[in-house]
Design a protein that fits this description.
Structural class: alpha+beta
Radius of gyration: 22 Å
Strand content: 5-15%
Shape: globular
Number of strands: 7
């Protein structure tokens, strides 16, 4: 199947789902070209074609153009940023960042979304059928429409904006996992609560493992270079990362989803090897990277700096959340079971027991920067158990762990750090 044939397949499905609904002037619905080129490069397998050129155009038509549904109409409600503090704060955050050029204009959620990379032909995240039913129920119960937009839609809209404006392309883009990580890291920098929530439903659900990868990529390659993957979408961060993504896709063969980053630690090890110029040509790059101990990577031996300290702050905060179904898939703030988590020194990992209510992809594991882990190992520690950990104390806990790393004198192999009040 050629790109033109794929476009026609998408168009047929879209117009069949559209029925008699009207598409506003200036909006030219189509399969987003970078996505089309990726599908063509993959050989147009049936599963990708049926998903992106069959199911997605149907959901796109129903989500944005079948007016009369309260949730659909909400997407077209005129935006008043004075009544949308989360959205206003996030847009200001992007404006202050290295990626300010990604900002788009628009008088409504739908209009702003229409100008983003995926806005020509995919449904916007956060407003799928189940989420629209929840929004409609809240509106019918008398919820303030602006408050609903700000809580349930602002983070998702900002994520779409962070993918950049709509564009043509000639050939497949670089690794989508890297692009997602860059976009989600930018969103988390612009408004941390859109990834690490303070209240239920304000975060883009289930994406923190991508920001984990993004944090590591920014540390290894520089934040500016990482953001170039969304500013200049043809810009590859490293060829081995592109090859690894194709290897993973061929192994799995279905549409991308959040589970693509369940091997975040292996992706980070591969990125660290790429950054020091020694990525292999293994037939399975992620498996090869997973087999490399952290202490054999240059990052382990590097002097720690403020970027590593900042990663600890993010990592501790990230542990205090869980992905739940309530009633839709959401990321909620959550305390740790027993108020405990462990720093695995050799594994460069923070980890906690999963919550009973947590579902797929719960962020109960996060990287601990290798240079700081090395300092603990040199003092004798192999693990640190943190006691009395509460979400409101996450910054204080992170500062305490960094101070422990930079301290002097021997430590027990199984050390303990207690968050006292």
């Amino acid at each position: 199947m050629t790109g033109a044939e794929l476009d026609r397949t998408w168009s047929g499905a879209f117009h069949a789902a559209l029925g008699g609904a009207r598409v506003p002037g200036g909006w030219a619905p189509r399969l987003p070209p970078p996505l089309r080129e990726s599908i063509v490069a993959a050989g147009c397998p049936d599963r990708l074609v049926s998903y992106y050129a069959g199911e997605m155009p149907r959901l796109f038509a129903e989500q944005l153009f079948r007016r009369g549904d309260p949730a659909v109409d909400l997407l077209w409600r005129p935006l008043d940023l004075e009544k949308l503090p989360r959205l206003r704060s996030a847009l200001d955050g992007i404006r202050r960042s290295e990626a300010a050029a990604l900002l788009v204009e628009g008088s409504s959620v739908a209009e702003m979304y229409s100008r983003t990379l995926f806005g020509s032909g995919l449904p916007m995240v956060g407003a799928y059928p189940g989420e629209r039913r929840l929004i409609a129920e809240e509106l019918s119960a008398g919820a303030d429409p602006d408050a609903v937009i700000d809580l349930r839609l602002s983070g998702n809209l900002v994520h779409e904006i962070c993918h950049g404006p709509a564009r043509d392309c000639s050939g497949p883009p670089p690794a989508w996992g890297v692009v997602e990580a860059a976009a989600l890291l930018l969103g988390s920098v612009a408004c941390p609560r859109h990834v690490y929530p303070d209240v239920p439903a304000e975060a883009v659900p289930g994406v923190s493992l991508f920001t984990l990868f993004g944090e590591a990529l920014a540390r290894l390659f520089g934040r500016g270079r990482l953001f170039e993957t969304v500013l200049i979408q043809a810009r590859s961060l490293h060829p081995a990362l592109d090859r690894a993504e194709w290897q993973e896709w061929r192994r799995r063969g279905d549409a991308p989803f959040a589970r693509d980053m369940l091997r975040a630690f292996d992706w980070i090890k591969l990125a660290a090897a790429c950054a020091e110029g020694r990525a292999s040509d293994a037939p399975d790059l992620l498996d090869a990277a997973a087999a490399v101990p952290w202490r054999e990577l240059r990052w382990w031996s590097d002097p720690p700096d403020e970027r590593d300290d900042a990663m600890v702050t993010v990592g501790v905060r990230a542990l205090f959340q869980a992905n739940v179904v309530a009633p839709t898939y959401q990321t909620h703030p959550a305390e740790l079971p027993g108020g405990r988590f462990v720093l695995d020194v050799e594994g460069c990992a923070l980890w906690a027991p999963p919550r009973r209510e947590g579902v797929f992809g719960e962020p109960a594991r996060w990287i601990f920067p290798p240079p700081l882990a090395r300092l603990l190992r040199e003092r004798g520690a192999r693990s640190v158990q943190v006691e009395g950990a509460r979400r409101t104390d996450s910054e204080r806990i992170a500062a305490g762990l960094v101070a422990m790393c930079r301290g002097s004198g021997p430590l027990p192999a199984e050390a303990t750090w207690t968050c006292s009040r």
